[in-house]
């Protein structure tokens, strides 16, 4: 009984270190909004990627330092809504969608609302979902597709007014992928603490070197491929596609995929 009471008190505590990373991610998302409003689209896109790094660190730091808490989980979710829901939607709207009228703000709203629904669904499935996969495109990856596209467009001088309808389509589509039932690898089953071959470290260095050459376009392509991997994984693992594989109530583990013979 004493251990249970200690665990409850621990879960209700507020720990500084992981919440510092969460706050840094929240600040990056807020900075992205302000930058996009001032026309600094490249800086706004980069800020969203910084928020992604902070989001990836806060949870891992909390687990490594045994400072996980209910407050931290809720705070992280709220910060994610700003950094990966509001910020990409406003960035896309300010960059290319504001001249489309209702079509523009509707596309941005679809993305924003989908991010909120995606985060709410994720929070209700903690502890019961298959940790190997995300149900629907994760909001940080979705934000990276939007931010990567705008970063690349700003870097290479693409006129946003010429591709406004394409940006609207991509923004809405990425939003719909977040609330889909497509399965995306979460990479949570990777043993990050395990030993690896020296060749693996060389490959890691090579990846960072390649990204540093043209970070905007390489990150953009990488996250587009990840966004497409969900439908590919689903179609690969079913004999007959059903509505439940794409959208609707989450199929159970027994019916989510019909194993191919």
Automatic annotation (TrEMBL):
<feature type="transmembrane region" description="Helical">
    <location>
        <begin position="196"/>
        <end position="227"/>
    </location>
</feature>
<dbReference type="Pfam" id="PF01066">
    <property type="entry name" value="CDP-OH_P_transf"/>
</dbReference>
<dbReference type="InterPro" id="IPR000462">
    <property type="entry name" value="CDP-OH_P_trans"/>
</dbReference>
<keyword id="KW-0444">Lipid biosynthesis</keyword>
<keyword id="KW-1208">Phospholipid metabolism</keyword>
<dbReference type="InterPro" id="IPR050324">
    <property type="entry name" value="CDP-alcohol_PTase-I"/>
</dbReference>
<keyword id="KW-1133">Transmembrane helix</keyword>
<comment type="similarity">
    <text>Belongs to the CDP-alcohol phosphatidyltransferase class-I family.</text>
</comment>
<keyword id="KW-0443">Lipid metabolism</keyword>
<dbReference type="InterPro" id="IPR043130">
    <property type="entry name" value="CDP-OH_PTrfase_TM_dom"/>
</dbReference>
<dbReference type="InterPro" id="IPR048254">
    <property type="entry name" value="CDP_ALCOHOL_P_TRANSF_CS"/>
</dbReference>
<dbReference type="InterPro" id="IPR004533">
    <property type="entry name" value="CDP-diaglyc--ser_O-PTrfase"/>
</dbReference>
<feature type="transmembrane region" description="Helical">
    <location>
        <begin position="132"/>
        <end position="151"/>
    </location>
</feature>
<keyword id="KW-0808">Transferase</keyword>
<feature type="transmembrane region" description="Helical">
    <location>
        <begin position="163"/>
        <end position="184"/>
    </location>
</feature>
<dbReference type="GO" id="GO:0003882">
    <property type="term" value="F:CDP-diacylglycerol-serine O-phosphatidyltransferase activity"/>
</dbReference>
<keyword id="KW-0812">Transmembrane</keyword>
<keyword id="KW-0472">Membrane</keyword>
<feature type="transmembrane region" description="Helical">
    <location>
        <begin position="12"/>
        <end position="34"/>
    </location>
</feature>
<feature type="transmembrane region" description="Helical">
    <location>
        <begin position="103"/>
        <end position="120"/>
    </location>
</feature>
<keyword id="KW-0594">Phospholipid biosynthesis</keyword>
<protein>
    <recommendedName>
        <fullName>CDP-diacylglycerol--serine O-phosphatidyltransferase</fullName>
        <ecNumber>2.7.8.8</ecNumber>
    </recommendedName>
</protein>
């Amino acid at each position: 009984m004493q251990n249970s009471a200690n665990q409850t008190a621990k879960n209700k505590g507020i720990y500084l270190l992981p919440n510092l990373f969460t706050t840094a991610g929240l600040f990056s998302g807020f900075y992205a909004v302000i930058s996009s409003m001032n026309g600094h689209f490249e800086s706004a896109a980069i800020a969203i990627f910084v928020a992604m790094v902070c989001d990836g660190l806060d949870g891992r730091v909390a687990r490594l330092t045994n400072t996980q808490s209910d407050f931290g989980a809720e705070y992280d979710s709220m910060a994610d809504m700003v950094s990966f829901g509001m910020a990409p939607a406003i960035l896309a709207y300010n960059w290319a969608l504001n001249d489309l009228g209702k079509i523009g703000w509707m596309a941005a709203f679809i993305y924003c609302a989908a991010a909120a629904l995606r985060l709410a669904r994720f929070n209700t499935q903690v502890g019961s979902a298959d940790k190997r996969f995300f149900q629907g495109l994760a909001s940080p990856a979705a934000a990276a597709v939007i931010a990567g596209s705008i970063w690349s467009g700003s870097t290479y001088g693409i006129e946003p007014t010429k591709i406004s309808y394409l940006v609207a389509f991509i923004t809405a589509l990425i939003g719909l992928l977040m609330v889909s039932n497509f399965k995306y690898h979460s990479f949570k089953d990777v043993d990050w603490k395990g030993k690896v071959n020296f060749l693996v470290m060389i490959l890691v260095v090579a990846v960072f070197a390649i990204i540093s050459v043209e970070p905007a376009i390489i990150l953009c392509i990488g996250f587009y491929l990840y966004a497409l991997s969900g439908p590919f994984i689903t179609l690969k693992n079913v004999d007959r596609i059903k509505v439940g594989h794409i959208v609707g109530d989450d199929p159970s583990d027994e019916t989510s995929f019909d194993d191919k013979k």
